[in-house]
Each structure stands twice: as C-alpha cells, then as structure tokens.
Protein: Protein transport protein SEC23 D-like
Organism: Coffea arabica
Amino acid sequence: MAVRATVGRFPENQEALESSGIPWGVTVTPFAGKDENGSPPAYGSDGNLLPRCENCWAYYNTFCDQEQWAWTCALCGTLNGLSSQAIARYSLPHSCAENLSSFIDLELPLDESEEMQARLVYVAAVDLSSSEEFLELIKSALLAALEALGPGSLFGLATFSHKVGLFDVQGPIPVVKNVLIPPDSDGGLPIELDDVMPLSSFLAPVDTCKDRIASALETLKPTNSWERTTAAGQGVDGVLLGGRGFGVAMEALLNYLGSEYGNTFALGRIFAFLSGPPDFGAGELDTRRYGEQYASKGEDADLALLPEQTPFYKDLATVAVQAGVCVDIFAVTNEYTDLASLKFLSIESGGSLFLYTNTDNSTLPQDMYRMLSRPYAFNCVLRLRTSSEFKVGNSYGHFFPDPQYENVQHIICCDSFATYAYDFDFANDSGFSRHTTELPMLQIAFQYTVVVPPDELSKSTSSSANRNKHSLQRRLRIHTLQFTTAHNINEVYDSVDPEVVLSILVHKVILISLEQGVREGRVLLNDWLVLLTARYNDACKLLQFERGNSATAHVDVAFSQCPQLQPLPRLVFALLRNPLLRLHEEGVHPDYRIYLQCLFSALEPSSLHRAIYPILTSFATPDKQAFPRHSLSRAALITSGSPIFFLDAFTTLIVFYSSTADPALPFPPPQDCLLRTTINKLKQERCITPTLMFIRGGQDDSTIFENYLIEEQDVEGSGFTSVMGFVSFLEEINHGVLEYLK
C-alpha cells in the first residue's frame, strides 16, 4: 500500500493552507505490494483480534502509547482498555506484526461458506453485431485470457446482438441456445437465462474444457445485417435500427450470475466486447447527439457529450456490485459509442474501460493476458481515518461509496496499480496547534480477499484435503502514517510532491469538466497556476523583506527559489495540451476523452506524470545513456547533440534516431542492449501494453514523435505557432499574476 501526500509537511491551519495555494491530499494504491518507501508490510495472523479505539474505531498501531492494561489511540487520544487476550498477546511485543511495523497485513478468519466457494468465474460477452475482423481479434484475446486464468476457474461464453446466446461447452460439441430480445423490450428478456440453460452447464471448468472453449470461439460469426434489421423491425422515420442489445444482455447476465454469488463463486468478472453503441432494447443509446446539431443549436459540445444520457448503466453497476460481479468493457470501434453513458458499468463495479480505435494494431490480447495474470484482490473495503484536527474532503477513484458509512469505499476488484485519491479540510479553525506534541496522523485500512495457491497456504490450514486446491484468504492491510507540520510557507513548498499535486488536479479538472464542461476545466487549471504563482511570489517577497531586500515588481513564474515547485508550470501546460482538456472543435473524439478520464483517474502519480508530460531520455549509443531527462522541445533535441532519443508517454514508447545519427549505429536497437533492457522493464511494469515504435528521422514519418514535443506548440490550439508555446504560456501566467495582485 503506497501512500503519497501532496506535501510532506502539512500546513498548520486553514490560513496557511489557503496562503500556500497547494492542494492538500494524498493518493493511495492499496494493493501495491510495497509502501511508498519500497518496504513490504509485516505479515501476521489473527487480524480479528487487533484492538480498536472505542471512540474513532482506528486500529491499534506502533504510534499508540501502550501501558500494561491500556493503550492510547494515536489518532484521537482516547485511552482504551486491553482485553486479557490482548495483554497476553502483547507481553511478547516482537511476536506481533502490529508492534513491529506501522504497515501490516494480517490474515482474518473465514466463515465456512467463504471457505466453500473459492472459485472465480469469468464470462465473455461478445458482440456479434460486428465484423469478421472484430471477432478474430476477440478470439485471440480470449485465447490469451484462457492461458492466464488460474486453476479452478470457471468460464462462460455468451453472445449478444438482437438475441442473447449462451454456450454449453462441456459436451463433445459446443451447443448454443439463443433467446430473442423483443423489439419493444423496455426491460428484460421474455425468459430467465436460468430456464434457457442451467448455470452449471454454462460455466465450464477451464482446467478440463480449455480446448472445447477454443472450439466454441471458432464458431462465432457476425449476425448479418438482414437478420438484425428484420428482428429489430422498422426504426425511427423508416430508418432500420441496428441490433446490438447490450443493455438487455448485461442485465440478464448479471441476474443470472448474481443468483449464485457466494455459493458457486467468490468473484465474477464479465468481459464485455463492444464493436459499437448499444442500439436495441433496454439501455439503447441515441448516438445522434454526436452530430452536427450542436453546431446549429449553439450548444457546448464539450459539455453536452460528457454527461450520461441515461441512468441505465449506472443503475446496472449497482446490480453488478450486489451480484459480486466486476465488468470490464473493451470497446473496439472508431464510431461514437457514448462511453460517457457506458463507463459507469465498468468503473463503479471495479472494472476497467478500454478503447481501441481499430483492429489492426490493437493490443487487446496482450492487455487481457496482462490484466488476468497479475495478482488482484476482490470484495475490498477501503477506509481512511485522520487524527481529529483534519478530515477527508473529497474522495476520487473507481469505487462504490458505502450507502451507510462516510469515507468507506467498496471495490469489487482491485489490482496492484489501482489508485485512489483524497483531499483534506481542517476540522476546526485552530488546525494543528504549535503548543502540542501531537502530530497529524493518517490511517488507511484495506480489507480484501485473495485466492491463494496450495503451496502458499499457511501451514496452520494445510490439511490433506486443502493441499491440492486453491483457497480464499481474507486479509486486513493497515498503513498508519505520521506527518509533521510546517512552521512557515517555505517549509510547505519545500515538501511538495509535484506528481501527487498533478494527480489531485487531474481529478478536480475531470469533475469540473463533467459538471460544467471542458472550458471550465481549463479555466480552473489556469486560475490555479496563477493563484499558486501569486502566493509563492508573495511568500518570497516577505522573505526578501525579512532579509532587508526591497520587493520588486518582477514575477518569478519559474519558481526559481523552490525546486519542488519548478515542474508544475510544465505539468499544467502539458495538461492543457492533453486531449483530456483539448476542445471538441480541435478534433478530440468524446469517447477518447472519456477513455482518458477513466484511465487517468486510476493511475498512480508517476504513471500519470508520464501520460501527461512524457519522459524524454537521450542515448549516445544503444548501450550508453547520454542524458536522463530533456524538456519536450525541438530545441532540446538539437542542443543535446545525441543521436538516439527514447520517449516514454505511458501508452506509447518511441525510439527516435535523429537524422544526423551515425548510419553505423544499429537500427532498430539490438535485443541485448541497455536501451532494449530499459524498454522491456518499462513494458513489464505497466498496467496496460504500451505501443512500441521505432522511427528514423529523415527517412520515416516522424510526425507522431514531433507531436509530443509540445513546448513549442500553442496552448490553445494544435500545431506550431509563430510564438514559442511554453514561453508565451509563462508570459500569460505572468500577466495573470500581475492582474491578480492589483
């Protein structure tokens, strides 16, 4: 569990917070194997015996004062009695994980029903209102997925178009049973899926049926357009409607699986493969809103295309959560599919949203294999507690908020990359008092379930019956952190983590974009940088005055006295240039914008940094690095004189040989060189498969690479301008600060 704060030293009170201009919050990556310092947790058992505070319900931790019979809560200061069991337990302090480390991971006992259902269920829902190319890609992706699924997994294959199809692959030949979706269907199917095929026939054990599942995949064929339009009937104004009954299929599958949640399986995952918008039956989406009418109506397309047009998929996410099913949506299409409406089904159920604009160079098979072969936790509950002087303001991320308890989030499925963010407010005017020794405390508790292979089972449970099967393990991970407070604004600035500040800003601009439009998001970001620059200059002016220097009218927009703040103007400039905040008329597809919102709001800070402001490195030869970091400008390329450049933009990796590179340098770089080792390591550590490109300057088209050199591009539009982009942006900020100070 990695926890990173925007500031290492917290502001003393509300006045100090406001005068700094820095957002105050943290990012949490709960299932990361190590903490923010690279240390693993102390493992232990009997998590159910861990003492809890009677007042704030925080867990006992290494920061608590312990006496023989009692302990004082480090978060709220309450004195709590210890049970006789706990007194005996703590008489040997080094025998308990909670006395060894402030980052612990404890096993919890399972009840009998949980021990019974250690199986994971995977269902592929494949869109047949599609093309041969689409289905070939899906077949490849599912074959890759089958290789990644663990022993004991169950797999079901379903299809949807104007009908829902269920496959039984457990016999000698695959059998498919179809149910037609009524054309006027405002809700479900005319018959329950249970009555079409028992769930036990639909869900096949992967261990014994892998070849039969592969055979069933080979039988998938697109439904022809005549069949679809005949079933769908006449559309609006005589135009024939399509037949992609995605909403009906999802609702039916969730009800089908939900009936057995906790009996047959511990976690269900549906992989939904879409080749276009749902256009038939319940959950049908009107894609005409992505037409020319916004131009003629004078509506703001950036605002009009971001909210959902129906609550259907948001409501369906609630059904998914109750059914213990997480839904991953894979959209392979370049037509408008209205991901703004569909996204809730995936992100609120703990799933992911993937968008591939074509089938030719799609990384879908690699992404599926990668997603399923890494460890993940499920049925998770995340809770953040603070000491009494401050409290959680907003929480951000792909979770389902608890309907009853504040600051409790439910996550159906969570991998080691999934990251959540919180910002803080002061609970009262006094803040952190200078006259007390109490320091700001933060405790994150994460309760989760994992599937454990037989060889990893703790010896205490390894009976001969358990030895050959996977088991469920419920665990409680707790990370308690103590922060210091800053005595002045310079201490706040010197402790800033710019990557975490960027994370909080991205969450805030996504929220404001959804509520008020992309333009408002851009204004918020610009205004924030003006405000921060003004506050920083104000602080420096005080500093100069204290040292006997007279204040000057010069505005330091580059934060020259504070290295921790120096990356921020570039990060804000890059974020304004990113498709996330580029305007509709600049050609940003609304589905791509939604995809970026979903991707960026789940990334940990270092990955997000790369996605917003890529890292550019230079090499003298494929085996020798020249410079670890360059600004994203053509000038940097020319002045460095290096022949090889490597750009890491998170989703894309580019190796660029300059046109002046020695022809004797091997192209592409050989497999055993330093550059290739760097690339392979980065690819291995990514949550998605980055696209790798090799470009030779002067011979290949280098537009893709040059588009990443954003510092000479205008912040308001695309392409190169007569004025230098980043330089003129700083001048605008300078002008904005002077206006603000007036």
Notes: The chain is about 35% helix and 25% strand. The first strand starts at residue 2 and ends at 5. Residues 518-546 form the longest helix (29 residues). Confidence is low (pLDDT under 50) at residues 234-240, 459-468, 542-552, 718-723.
